[in-house]
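Morning run. Coffee first, then this:
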Amino acid sequence: MAQDDAIVRLARQIDAARKAERFLVHADEVASLRRYGACELHRICAEFVSSVSRGLVEATLDFSPATYAPETFREPGVNLIQISSQGREIQIAFGAPPQLVSTEKFLVPYVLEGEVRTYNQRMLERFEIRNRLLFFCVEEGTASWRFFDLRARHTGRVDRDLLVSLMEPLF
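And here it is:
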């Protein structure tokens, strides 16, 4: 049984390496794609904040940075996006992996990796911070942000619905 699991894992790694090798491109192209990915993640967050803010009467959502341009992306380094309200936080940290294109942490080739963390004061007192891994994946001419939940072994697109599902339990 354990040998079968090892075989299945190896087969997945071989397939993932093949996919990653399809994207062997020039560093300038990857750098441009990374800047685009950073802006795309900011856009998703900005649209979420805007849609929630339209329904708020008294409270506010804080969003940082308020604007994001391609030249804002730091490579190397950590890039941060924060959404907060009344001590409840969604914090997104992301950056470039060591390789131009990687499949080390996720089977779909990616050019950016990161993590979204959610917490409130009560959670911090219990040393409980929820997180999801994030990847800006490139596959067959498309690029999009995906998340991976280590606890539930679940993956999906990074979108408004994900951000809602992350923020709701904080209140």
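Residues 27-55 form the longest helix (29 residues). Good start to the day.
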